[in-house]
Write a structure and sequence with these properties.
By secondary structure, the protein is of the alpha+beta class. The structure holds coenzyme A.
Length: about 170
């Protein structure tokens, strides 16, 4: 257990090596399979070894102990970015690490879209477990459509439109 109220020193990196990507899988399995009881067979999916997935790893410094991750998928035939596989290990929740991971994904998606010549805004889509809807709502994600079953558990599609240019604050 973390016995301090101070946020542990940490970093978020893009997982590039096999070891770093495996560490993402390990924290996902610890949370989605061991804690939440989702099937192990579906945890590693077709996007994991595709070139269309980017994995971000949250780890403590200086120990480099993995404590969370998030994955973004951008298929070449899709106009949207998909936020997937967000986890923070149970002992490290409520330190705003989930928020930092989502923000990192948003920043990466915006930079990726801008480098591909996009203008205006991008859409980020996710399938939220019902308990996490309030978490995603804090970023402005809105529910779209009815709840549906995914891997045996109810989920809600949520969508966010992210402007590519900083919003202008007009002082009156
Ligand atoms: C969802 C999860 C990633 C949140 O991570 P976290 O590090 O605990 O969240 P944060 O500390 O960054 O919280 C950011 C804000 O969201 C709020 N929040 C956190 N979890 C929430 C929840 N389940 N519902 C509503 N609000 C939530 C926090 O209070 C905080 O609010 P504030 O910024 O106004 O103070 C984490 O609970 C987790 O890993 N859960 C298990 C895996 C999971 O369910 N992933 C989502 C799959 S869809």
């Amino acid at each position: 257990m973390v016995d301090s109220v101070e946020t542990p020193a940490h970093e978020i990196i893009i997982a590039r090596t096999e070891q770093e990507i495996q560490q993402c899988y390990d924290v996902r399995i610890a949370v989605f399979h061991v804690e939440q009881k989702f099937p192990l067979e579906t945890e590693i999916d077709e996007f994991d070894r595709s070139p269309h997935a980017t994995h971000f790893l949250l780890r403590l410094i200086p120990s480099l102990t993995p404590i969370g991750c998030i994955r973004v998928v951008k298929r070449p035939d899709a106009s949207y970015y998909k936020l997937t596989r967000l986890v923070v290990l149970r002992d490290y929740r409520r330190f705003r690490f989930g928020r930092a991971l989502v923000q990192t994904l948003h920043d990466w998606a915006k930079a990726d879209a801008l480098s591909a010549g996009a203008t205006g805004s991008i859409q980020v889509v996710l399938h939220s477990q019902l308990h996490a809807k309030g978490f995603y709502a804090k970023f402005g994600y809105l529910p779209e459509g009815a709840e549906f079953d995914e891997d045996g558990d109810p989920h809600q599609k949520m969508v966010l439109r992210l402007p590519l240019e900083p919003s202008v604050n007009v002082q009156t």
